[in-house]
Amino acid sequence: MIELAFTACSIVQGARCFEKTLLFSDVSLITCQTQGQQPLADWRNKHPNFTIGRWQCRPAGQFAKI
C-alpha cells in the first residue's frame, strides 16, 4: 500500500497546517510519484479554503510524519 502524504494549510485560519494522507492499494511508488498531482488537485478542488504544500509518496505507515 502506498500513501501520498501532503501538508495542507488553511487560507482562512492563517498558518494552521496539518498532514493529510491519501492511500492507494493499486499503484506503485513510481506511479504515485509521477501521477500524484492529480489526486492532490482533486483534494484541493474539494477543499477550496486550503493550500497544499510539500508532498511525497511513500510506503504506507513506515515513515514519520512530514
Question: Quick summary of this structure?
Answer:
The protein has helices at 29-35, 37-46, and strands at residues 2-10, 17-24, 50-59. It is of the alpha+beta class.
Distance between the termini: 18 Å
Mean pLDDT: 89
Described by its quaternary structure, the protein is single chain
What strand order characterises the main sheet?
Answer: 2-1-3
Number of discrete helical segments? 2
Keywords:
single chain; 66 residues; 2 helices; 3 strands; 26% helix; 41% strand; elongated
Give an overview of the whole structure.
By secondary structure, the protein is α+β, with helices and mostly antiparallel strands. It has one domain. The protein has helices at residues 29-35, 37-46; strands at residues 2-10, 17-24, 50-59. A three-stranded antiparallel β-sheet has the order 2-1-3. A hairpin with a 6-residue loop joins strand 1 and strand 2 (17-24). The longest helix has 10 residues, at 37-46. It is elongated and about 35 Å long. The model has no long low-confidence stretch (mean pLDDT 89).
